[in-house]
Write a structure and sequence with these properties.
5-stranded mixed beta sheet, 191 residues, alpha/beta, 7 helices, two-stranded antiparallel ribbon
Length: 191
């Protein structure tokens, strides 16, 4: 049993490593509209950010936090890009993404662009949004970019010369009948 435990792959660490290594390719693949406004020469990974709740009872580690400047005339605007990998379905995930956003926004006093890479195996109907409503009005609507791999069609990424597309294709939606072809295509692309 101990050998099997050692053989288990730390998927969270693999996703983080992939995104750290190929951050620009990841952003170009999944948020091209944002990339068009970034000065990619200014990308800087920040140290692991530990978030504590107000009472100090729970602590969470942000998966990836990147500082980058926006393009534009005038004074360059610095932003944070927060990327969170979520490997399993979590009921209050949108609330957690908002808490991370609020903590980072308050601590750094910078605009934060939140991204969730959803790498669990089943499609979900969860909305990438946290809202705070009262009977008479909506007080808050927080939206984040969700990349639900299980809902993306692997064929759409088949001929893209992007290492992130190749690496994540196996986690995308593949019909059972297409699985052998998908595995052959992925091997060919890794070639």
């Amino acid at each position: 049993m101990a050998d099997k435990a050692r053989e288990r792959v730390d998927h969270d660490a693999l996703f983080k490593n992939l995104i750290e290594t190929f951050l620009v390719e990841f952003l170009r693949l999944f948020v091209p509209a944002l990339v068009a406004h970034l000065n990619l020469r200014t990308v800087k990974f920040l140290d692991k950010e530990i978030l504590s709740d107000v009472k100090g009872q729970s602590r969470h580690l942000v998966d990836l936090l990147v500082e980058c400047r926006m393009k534009g005339s005038g004074k360059p605007k610095t932003i944070l890009i927060h990327i969170e990998n979520q490997a399993s379905l979590q009921k209050n995930f949108a609330r957690r993404m908002f808490r991370y956003f609020a903590h980072l926004f308050l601590k750094f006093d910078l605009d934060v662009y939140p991204i969730a890479l959803l790498s669990y195996d089943r499609p979900t109907s969860q909305t990438p949004q946290f809202t705070l409503d009262f009977p008479d009005k909506r007080v808050l609507q927080f939206d984040y970019t969700a990349i639900p791999l299980a809902q993306l069609d692997w064929k759409h990424y088949l001929n893209q010369p992007n290492p992130v597309a190749i690496a994540l294709m196996a986690k995308m939606h593949i019909e059972p009948a297409d699985r052998p072809r998908a595995m052959l295509e992925i091997r060919r692309m890794l070639g």
